[in-house]
Amino acid sequence: QVQLVESGGGLVQPSGSLRLSCAASGSISSYVMYWYRQAPGKLREWVAQITENGWTTYLDSVKGRFAISRDNTKNMVYLQMNNVKPEDTAVYYCSAGALVWGQGTQVTVSS
Fold first, then answer.
1. Nearest-CA neighbor of 10 among 89, 103, 77?
2. CA–CA–CA angle 107, 109, 110 (5° rounding)
3. Distance between CA atoms of residues 78 and 94, nearest Å
4. What pLDDT, on the 0 to 100 scale, is given for residue 103?
5. What is the largest CA-CA distance in the chain?
6. Cβ distance 46 to 101 under 8 Å?
């Protein structure tokens, strides 16, 4: 079973950009990979996913602003976040197959 470690979170101003990374300890090539997020006081929310073949789907509120990608040769998954909004503030989690989870990385959008 792979282990996942997210990085790249931090404080960003509204309309800014951030790139989250998820490093896996082993091969992710057979997994659908996900990004979820959880804001304070709210349930964990699905944000985006990318299939083994690279097909992507997104939460409506991030469509056109976020982009998920993967590099199976490096066992990495990314979430490029553009034009971020205060409501994007949350802990972001990477998941392999919705079975294995990372520890999360905090994203705070504030001026």
1. 89
2. 140
3. 9
4. 97
5. 40
6. no
Task: Give the tokens for residue 89.
Answer: 């503030």
Q: What pLDDT digit, counting tens, does each position of 36-84 carry?
A: 999 999 999 999 999 999 999 999 999 999 999 999 999 999 999 999 9
Of 15, 84, 13, the closest CA to residue 47 belongs to 84
Query: How do 105-109 and 10-12 pair as beta strands?
Result: parallel
The residues that bridge with 58 in the sheet, in sequence order, are 48
Average pLDDT, the chain: 97
Is the pLDDT reported for residue 1 higher than 90? no
- End-to-end, the C-alpha distance of the chain in Å comes to 40
DSSP β-bridge partners for residue 11: 108
| Amino acid (1-letter code) at residue 54 | G
